[in-house]
Specification:
globular, alpha+beta, 11 strands, four-stranded mixed β-sheet, three-stranded antiparallel β-sheet, disordered N terminus
């Protein structure tokens, strides 16, 4: 007889556990936000993006073995309804990591609040610095999908919310 190991078997996770995991990213973001400070970061100024005040960590944090010193960017991930689904940290040197428990699929970093009325154009970039640069060069609501694998998912969510809005993916 042939015996096969069970290494590839994934056991179903109860929905309530998945809901708790998703809430963890949101809770972690809000916990860090409480101790954050507003300011500019070398991550952006080193790329020629001056005058952009953002939330910065008020104390060092380690995520997945990567250290993020105070002054690292703290960015909210949101969905199309404005609900925070987690966060991304970016160190002054450009190290990036999502907060544990963050829900990325279809979520994004918005440079400004979600428009109350459908915008004529939405520009979706991969990263935050690219989104800032795009906002200086074009008109429309600009958001960052955080990962190339999330660009299409974010575009689909935008299309569902605003069927007639022009969507530009700026990679």
């Amino acid at each position: 007889t042939l015996s096969m190991p069970e290494a590839g078997i994934k056991h179903a996770v109860p929905a309530r556990n998945e809901a708790v995991r998703k809430a963890d990213g949101k809770a972690r973001f809000h916990q860090l936000e409480k101790t954050s400070v507003q300011g500019e970061t070398p991550y952006l100024t080193g790329r020629g993006l001056f005058g952009h005040v953002s939330a910065l960590l008020g104390h060092p944090v380690t995520v997945a073995g990567t250290g993020f010193p105070d002054g690292s960017l703290l960015l909210a991930l949101t969905d199309t309804e404005g609900v925070i689904t987690g966060g991304q940290l970016i160190s002054p040197e450009g190290e990036k990591n999502l907060l544990p428990g963050s829900q990325l699929t279809g979520a994004f970093i918005a440079l400004t609040d979600i428009p109350a009325t459908p915008p004529e154009q939405v520009i979706i970039t991969e990263g935050f610095a690219t989104a800032l640069a795009a906002s200086l060069l074009s008109s429309g609501w600009v958001i960052a999908a955080v990962a190339a694998t999330n660009l299409v998912r974010v575009a689909e969510k935008i299309r569902q919310k605003w069927p007639d809005t022009r969507i530009v993916i700026a990679g």
